[in-house]
């Protein structure tokens, strides 16, 4: 009879042949038996060569690992690798300007055959229902001091202080400045907005992310030009300008030309450690064009009416005739809100005429 080769190997280890059987009493299968025999043979060779204790320990570990991997589906214990949260990576964050630049859809084809009509983009609407239209909301948001707002009837910003980030011009008269569409409406039209319905066009034209309070000179010089044709004269605003432009285009899924994309990349190169900060405003762009921190202030309500109120509503106050004209209420009759005798230089009952 041919001797069982397993007996020689297992016997040399001082183990009975039954050691190749599983704890449940069932055979582990030929693959498991062969694995045990091979490991046993390796241990014999290591011992004969004077292997160290660390080699024996390695053999024991290898035997355990091999035995586990060779176990068939009838095993009663399974080892499963668990993925920790750090293995999955950090939570996703808002895309950076560079990521948005890479995400731009490029389209260098000519503009659509349909004609751009500005009136088809209804703007200066009160889309958020707060009582102020989008222009007044922008003036409130961009004032570097709390704005004074007349809410008696139509919401009108009366006083504040503004810095045009495009050129550094300042004013305290809201009527002196324009509210610029960062991505001009005509550019939005040729970049994909020509497909939009009136509801989407209206939402875009009144989006706070789209609005920048700037000097009339810069706004009208810019016109409908993209960044490869016009850039703010104040280079300190390039980073914020490019970042804001990209945010609008990506948010509204508008296309860009190759030269437009290249110009935006050049302006992003001007970004410093502070990031996209509008010069003179002192606040970084946060998901949109409007600076954070400017606040709406209610119309002043003095504890006592001014001595020269002249019978007007004391809850409406114009610091001077320039403010009254900016609010569109000049001239002011003596029986109208905001009338003060100090504004009525000739005392005829009609101020700021």
What is the topology, as strand order, of the major beta sheet? 3-2-9
Number of strands: 11
Number of domains: 3
What is the gyration radius calculated from CA atoms?
38 Å
Write the layout of secondary structure elements.
Elements: H1 5-12, H2 30-48, H3 53-70, H4 97-103, E1 105-106, H5 134-142, E2 147-150, E3 156-159, E4 162-163, E5 170-171, E6 177-181, H6 185-190, H7 198-205, E7 211-215, H8 216-222, H9 238-251, E8 255-256, H10 258-268, E9 296-297, H11 321-326, E10 332-333, E11 350-351
Parallel strand pairs: 1-8, 2-9
Antiparallel strand pairs: 2-3, 4-5, 6-7, 10-11
Mind explaining what this structure looks like?
- This protein has 353 residues and is α/β, with parallel strands linked by helices.
- The chain folds into 3 domains: 5-70, no CATH class; 97-296, no CATH class; 302-353, no CATH class.
- Helices cover 32% and strands 9% of the residues.
- The protein has 11 helices and 11 strands.
- The strands form 5 sheets. It has a 3-stranded mixed β-sheet with strand order 3-2-9. Strands 1-8 form a two-stranded parallel ribbon. A two-stranded antiparallel sheet has the order 4-5.
- α1 (5-12) packs across α2 and α4 (97-103) packs across α9 (238-251).
- The protein is elongated.
């Amino acid at each position: 009879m041919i001797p069982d080769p397993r007996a020689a190997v297992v016997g040399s280890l001082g183990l009975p042949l039954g050691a190749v059987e599983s704890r449940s009493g069932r055979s582990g299968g030929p693959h498991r038996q062969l694995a045990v025999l091979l490991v046993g043979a390796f241990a014999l060779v290591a011992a004969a060569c004077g292997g160290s204790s660390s080699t024996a320990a390695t053999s024991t570990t290898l035997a355990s690992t091999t035995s586990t991997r060779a176990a068939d589906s009838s095993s009663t214990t399974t080892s499963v690798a668990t993925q920790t949260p750090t293995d999955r990576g950090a939570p996703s964050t808002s895309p950076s300007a560079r990521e948005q630049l890479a995400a731009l859809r490029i389209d260098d084809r000519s503009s659509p055959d349909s004609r751009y009509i500005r009136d088809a983009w209804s703007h200066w609407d009160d889309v958020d229902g707060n009582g102020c239209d989008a222009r007044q909301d922008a003036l409130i948001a961009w004032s570097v001091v709390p704005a004074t707002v007349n809410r008696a009837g139509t919401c009108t910003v009366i006083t504040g202080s503004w810095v045009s980030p495009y050129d550094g011009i300042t004013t305290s008269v809201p009527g002196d400045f324009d509210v610029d569409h960062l991505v001009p409406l005509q550019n939005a039209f040729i970049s994909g907005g020509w497909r939009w319905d009136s509801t989407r066009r209206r939402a875009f034209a009144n989006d706070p992310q789209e609005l920048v309070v700037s000097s009339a000179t810069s706004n009208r010089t810019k016109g409908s030009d993209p960044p490869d044709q016009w850039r703010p004269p104040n280079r300190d605003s390039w980073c914020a300008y490019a970042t804001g432009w990209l945010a609008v285009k990506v948010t509204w899924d508008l296309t860009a030309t190759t030269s437009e994309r290249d110009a935006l990349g050049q302006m992003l190169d001007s970004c410093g450690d502070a990031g996209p900060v509008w010069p003179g405003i002192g606040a970084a762009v946060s998901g949109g064009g409007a600076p954070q921190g400017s606040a709406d202030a209610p119309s002043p309500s003095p504890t006592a009416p001014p001595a020269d109120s002249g019978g007007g509503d004391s809850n409406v106050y114009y610091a001077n005739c320039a403010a009254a004209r900016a609010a569109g209420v000049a001239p002011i009759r003596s029986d109208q809100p905001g009338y003060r005798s100090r504004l009525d230089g000739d005392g005829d009952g009609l101020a700021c005429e």
